[in-house]
Amino acid sequence: MPDRSLREEELLVRVGWIVKVRWLFLAVLAVTIVAGRYLFGIRFPVGRVLLVWAVILLYNLGFDLYYRFRKSGAAPDLTVSRIETYLQIGMDLLALTFLIHFTGGAENPFIYFYLFHAILASMLLPRAEVWLLGLVSYCMFLSVVALEYLEVVPHYQLEGLFLHSRHGNLMFLSVVSLGLLITLVITIYLSCTIVNSLRLREKKLVLTRNMLEKKSGELAEANAKLVERQKQLVQAEKLASMGQLVSGIAHEINNPIQFIQGNMQILREAIRDILPVLDAKEGKDHGLKIARLPYPFFREQVQVLLKDMADGTGRIGNIVRDLKTFARRDEGRLDEKVDVNRVVEAATRLVHNKIKRFRLEQSLAEGLPALKGSLVQMEQVVVNTLINAAEALEDRPDACIRIATRLENDGRQVRLSISDNGPGMTDEVKDRLFDPFFTTKQRTGGTGLGMSITYGIIEEHGGSIEVETRLGEGTTFHYILPVARGAS
Fold first, then answer.
1. For residues 55 and 65, what is the distance between their CA atoms, to the nearest angstrom?
2. Residues 297 and 441 in one domain
């Protein structure tokens, strides 16, 4: 069955058509009256016909003004539109019946104007109601024929068109009535079938259009995602290239560092062997200077210098090792045993230059069980979060970053919390925090990928993220991660 809403929509939109068609009918009727009476010499009660014409003109003018000045802002009401349709078609049928009565009754060749209203009704009303209007139309015609035949009402002959009146010829009346009935039935059936077929086709077109619009929206969304993915791939390629560059630099630095560390050991042993000789020389020759320094001061400070040099090279070695670990190719494997505390220590060494201006407080629980995942990815999570915290703190005099780990949920989860006492975030920023390419640092080169990548990593590790933030007080990121099975 055709969609009922399509017919109702047609009724709401096209009920005003009847008025326009009626103006055309009035014009044709006026021309027909003048031509029939004065050109062809057909005699009929012109006054009564013009009276009917004037009545049609008046109520059509009323409907026209009603549709013109009806409130345009108000939504059309289906019930009101149906009543208007029934009223207009009913008044037209009544006026047409009077016109036929005043112009020859069954002898009038224009009795088939009843068909026009049947076609019009089939366009606007349900099939059952169209058949009902057809029945009413036919009954009106039969009433005129019967009343004239029984001479209850006078018969107005079209003098000049027919030589003899046939309103009393029962055979003629039967043939005309039967012909009108057959034509009316065929017209209603065909018009309803065609209109319903068109509505069904229109319904399919509407469904197809809706489907195409939906597909178009999905394609637009998919295209936007592809563009976004392309940007991510470009950025990922840049990061991968930087990772390879960092790994190469770290490797190049590592060789001379190992060389320096090896030579430092030799130098320490050499100083230890030379000092007794220098002590003896100082005993014989007071005022001995080494490197323009008095020997007693040199002897005291040289050990400190050697220790500082050894500590410095050791620290550089740790940073290089952490860089190599952080920049190594991530193959996406999540089968490593990850010590969260060691991840925190390595990450803080990597971003030491970024956070050294701020007070760093660590509360790392001892004896945490290992997680199952990727060491590189977890380091990236901590690094991203620490960098964000450092950038949020800027130059606050009391700036502080707190890192804490603890075991919870009966030993089944590890919670890693990273806090800062920066400006905090608005609800709008918090809601979009993990959206790809969303950043509040466009001017300083922010890519908007750090927290998006962090979210993906935590999700891949089977964990969750909780964010606590208050404007003017700071932000805390909680990473809750599951402990590896069998870990202790």
1. 16
2. no
